[in-house]
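Hi V.,

You were right to ask for the full record rather than a summary. Here it is.
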Amino acid sequence: MSNFRGRGLQANALGTFDTVVMAVAGSAPAYSLAATTAVLVGTVGLASPAALLYCAIPMLGIALAFSYLGRIDVNAGASYSWVGRTLHPFLGFISGWALVISATIFMVAGSLPAGSMTLALFDEQLAENTALSTVVGAAWFVAMLLVVLGGARLTVRAQLVMSGVELAILALFAVLAVLHTGSARAFDWSWLGFSHFDGVSGFASGALIAAFYYWGWDVTSNLSEETRNSRRTTGLAGLIGIGIVFLLFEAFTIAVNVILSSRQIEENNANVLAVLGEEVWPGWGGKLLIVAVMLSTIATLETTLIQVTRSLFAMGRDRTMPSALGRVHPRWNTPWVAIVVVGTVALVMLIASNALGSVGDILSDAISAIGLQIAVYYGLAGLAVVVAYRRMLLKSVANFVFGGLWPLFGALFMFWVFVESLSELSTASVTIGIGGLAVGLIPMLWYWRQGSDYYRPAKLDATRTVETDYVPDDHADAHAPVHEGLPTDF
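Predicted structure:
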């Protein structure tokens, strides 16, 4: 990997609490529930809670992989760097590219609900207008673009406000849902079992959608170069974030099964949470949950922008993408070129999405396509940690389980879901998902032939920690010193 040295990101800007907030905001609990519940119910029916439960187990394995890899390689590119230095640089690039493409698609899929939810606060009929939703969503997107450009500290302050209000509303409605008396059906423990899945392929399709629910907690790893004590903090925050959103996802999907009828879910495919709110608290409930979804959507647009721009920053720094992407703003210490490029591309795609149909149609195809790309880069990270820690796995039971077996299970699960779901998804979803990955072969092969040092990496090994220092000086030497030493523990 290149030891290119230029102006760095803002070091030590975030603490532990900040990164936990970012992890939760990255998974966007209210947005995920509102935008994805109808898709999940349409795929697996009453087994929605089971899909989220059984996807959470391998997802924790992937979070463990990110945690342990982050201890030995602090890099804004996260899986892009780890996979490239353990498995193969080509796979590392594809891992980073999968995140870039999935995040870019999401910024279209996320901006539309941000616009429609904002309009729904004033007039529910306006929320169905795709063109108007696009305009308002684009305005929110540009606002978040400016916040991210302003630096990590400004970003986390905005998150504290948005996610704080969102989580308070969700917690309130979780309690109200438990106390609710009128229901469409009684709770059934079979909703947490396998009986409601339509065979193996049905389970795989449900798990792929469930992966989208959780996706985003790994933003903490992309912020590692800007976090205090990041070798510990980023991984821990990711694990805590998954735990918090898992509880919220289970509470609300069970509430949807109990309180809403199949017809209500089908007729409100992009607004399920608001309908649930009206049932639980007529008059105010729907509006409050619309506020929660709106804030969640805007918040996760921000974290997604961080993920994609930090990944592109790492790629530009390594010269596996245009080196201009690795430039950092002299005042805000943010990768401003990457932010401008991503913002421009996403806005063009957002405007073009008007031709694709309704908000619900766009969300359905985008969620499945993103799920495929998530499965790729999460799965590769799960394999990478086993390779990086291979010499330490048999030193203790904890090493073997948490650094090897569980992440490996998570990786195999992700790859299995990827393969099994291909036959079940729409042509549009598969084309977007696989086609987006295939496009990455062009820059990968181009910069490989240009001789980027990324394609001649120093192998990542847990028996030593390799840390590259980036000095915030535009006129620094071309190569940074490499410090080696044993990890504090495993």
